[in-house]
Amino acid sequence: MTIEVEKKLDEMELWLKTQTQLPQKIDRWMLKRFLLCMEGDKDAAQNLLITNYKMRNKYDHIFIKRDPKYESSEKVVKVVDFLTLPGYTPEKYKLILYRLADTDPDKFNVNEVFQVFFMMVDSRFRELCNENAIGEIVVFDMTGFSLRHLSKFSLGTIRLFMKYIQEAHVGRVKGVHVINAASFLDKVMFLVRPFLKGELINVLHFHMPNTETAYKFFPHEMLPDEYGGKAGKLQDLREFWVKKLMENRDFIIDESRWKMNS
To answer: Superkingdom of the source (predicted)?
Structure first.
């Protein structure tokens, strides 16, 4: 870490002490993640931190009142895969794969999925705090995603998710790729498009089944074995990240890290 970054982190720690509305249990490595996300712009990093925590507290049923050991959480990790894949793209981006592990719509609860999604994001946030990725590419595999799944999404839930990803997420999204796109993609976009901002629209790509167009954007070999890649088996990757989630449980459920002072 450069002397300049260390100096900015020192300044951010002093600034944090003046922000009595924020929890004071925000570690230096967390401040570093905000700073690097904003490419060293300290003021922007501080603004992002405030935005992030305000959103967490406004929607505390998703971001604060949570636990990987909830029965609902344990069910979700059997239904949806949240997989940060090994290695980097040539541009030094991480590749993150989201997919249905169980395609039964009756087992799919949107609010519970989003709660676990953000716990996984925070677990990854901590787990990869010393890595040097400069961005991330998100891959959504629509295999098995049906209209019955889609019917479970409310506009409020979609608005929350899109607002967080575009305004409060501590990461630079360099690409979003929907692979094995469903025939009803137009219905998905009808719901999502009102909440999409230009920056995300510009990196959003759709790829039909049995095509290889996605590999123009990231190496095929970075995907799991079942996709023809070399990242390892889905089951092993799933078990790895669920284990990490449980290892980071104390960090995740500690409300003194996340709850703002009223």
So the answer is: Eukaryota
Strands across the sheet with 173-179, in order? Answer: 80-84, 93-100, 135-141, 173-179, 204-206
Q: What share of the chain is helix, strand, coil (3-state, %, to 5)?
A: 55, 10, 35
Q: List, for residues 85-125, the tens digit of each pLDDT value.
A: 999 999 999 999 999 999 999 999 999 999 999 999 999 98
In a 13 Å sphere around the CA of 67, the CA atoms on its Cβ side amount to 5
Full DSSP string of 13-38: HHHHHH-TTS-S---HHHHHHHHHHT
SS (H, E, C) 48-94: HHHHHHHHHHHCHHHHCCCCCCCHHHHHHHHHEEEEECCCCCCCCEE
Provide the residue type at 175 as one letter. G
Contact between 48 and 34 under an 8 Å Cβ cutoff? The reply is yes
Structure letter (DSSP) for residue 197? -
Tell me the β-bridge partners of 205.
177
Cα gap 70→81, rounded to integer Å: 17
Dihedral sign (CA 122, 128, 131, 136):
negative
Tokens of 203: 């990196």
